[in-house]
């Protein structure tokens, strides 16, 4: 079914990274989500009315919020596909995250409302009418939701969409909540306890948990989360694959929506190399990053000495000191200002955020003084991405 829908509505589906194709995928997911969830809402409302079950009603309204989520997702895909303009030079890609945040707030509101309704049902019980036909309708809705979750997962992975991956998780949560509702309806046949109210609270708790997860996933990229380690490695490998690049550091990546990464990195180059030729190489790397990784990359050149034996010897000594302190430590931008009574060693040290900078600075200074009392380390600490 999924393959058929993609073939019918997404031409050139294999080019998912292209903005127009991505938009078609998003439109398909949104329309299917709206249709499926509205249908499920109507089915569950009917079952809830027949059985007088607050938990079934809660599950029905949960599907209605899912349909609204799909509407918002559909709108966000249209907005995120807009071209950059004067007011928003980096595009509108982050509207997907804003849409996800809005949906999560809506889901949390619905969850609290049903906790209130379910508590009222516990305090003021009313009979739940058991119906095998209603059970059958709910089982069918579970199967539809399971398919919808797998459908959103397929498309969400194809176009790297956080909104659709969240929709996938929400659909799988709905399978669980509907299953709980069915168990509650069956259990109500064998007890006079207000099982329906308790099940309603369980369903509402699932709704709240789903809303919290969606809010967390939407807020993280808006606040500014660290770059995907796999993307960082790909950028580093691309830059260092060119012969004139000796190493890279200070890689910073910013996300402006799915598939829209902007990054900058410092590339170490030989100080005695042909700067015009190296600059041409830098331009080629930036173009290759955009073409193969879809990353707008800006590279800063850091010339370093590689043919001065004394500088290289002291550099190796300094690297050994860092390794002896902790193998995870690394350095870059090493320079040496020689003097008769004092030798300034200027370099950056890349550390994890767990390190206490001043304690580490003192330890490095002590170890370097043991090699040569004239060594005066001037250290800048960088944190790992």
TrEMBL record:
<feature type="transmembrane region" description="Helical">
    <location>
        <begin position="172"/>
        <end position="191"/>
    </location>
</feature>
<keyword id="KW-0472">Membrane</keyword>
<dbReference type="Pfam" id="PF01545">
    <property type="entry name" value="Cation_efflux"/>
</dbReference>
<dbReference type="InterPro" id="IPR050291">
    <property type="entry name" value="CDF_Transporter"/>
</dbReference>
<feature type="transmembrane region" description="Helical">
    <location>
        <begin position="197"/>
        <end position="215"/>
    </location>
</feature>
<dbReference type="InterPro" id="IPR027469">
    <property type="entry name" value="Cation_efflux_TMD_sf"/>
</dbReference>
<dbReference type="InterPro" id="IPR058533">
    <property type="entry name" value="Cation_efflux_TM"/>
</dbReference>
<keyword id="KW-1133">Transmembrane helix</keyword>
<dbReference type="InterPro" id="IPR027470">
    <property type="entry name" value="Cation_efflux_CTD"/>
</dbReference>
<feature type="domain" description="Cation efflux protein cytoplasmic">
    <location>
        <begin position="228"/>
        <end position="303"/>
    </location>
</feature>
<comment type="similarity">
    <text>Belongs to the cation diffusion facilitator (CDF) transporter (TC 2.A.4) family.</text>
</comment>
<feature type="domain" description="Cation efflux protein transmembrane">
    <location>
        <begin position="31"/>
        <end position="222"/>
    </location>
</feature>
<feature type="transmembrane region" description="Helical">
    <location>
        <begin position="97"/>
        <end position="115"/>
    </location>
</feature>
<feature type="transmembrane region" description="Helical">
    <location>
        <begin position="25"/>
        <end position="47"/>
    </location>
</feature>
<feature type="transmembrane region" description="Helical">
    <location>
        <begin position="127"/>
        <end position="151"/>
    </location>
</feature>
<dbReference type="Pfam" id="PF16916">
    <property type="entry name" value="ZT_dimer"/>
</dbReference>
<dbReference type="InterPro" id="IPR002524">
    <property type="entry name" value="Cation_efflux"/>
</dbReference>
<keyword id="KW-0813">Transport</keyword>
<dbReference type="GO" id="GO:0008324">
    <property type="term" value="F:monoatomic cation transmembrane transporter activity"/>
</dbReference>
<protein>
    <submittedName>
        <fullName>Cation diffusion facilitator family transporter</fullName>
    </submittedName>
</protein>
<dbReference type="InterPro" id="IPR036837">
    <property type="entry name" value="Cation_efflux_CTD_sf"/>
</dbReference>
<dbReference type="GO" id="GO:0016020">
    <property type="term" value="C:membrane"/>
</dbReference>
<keyword id="KW-0812">Transmembrane</keyword>
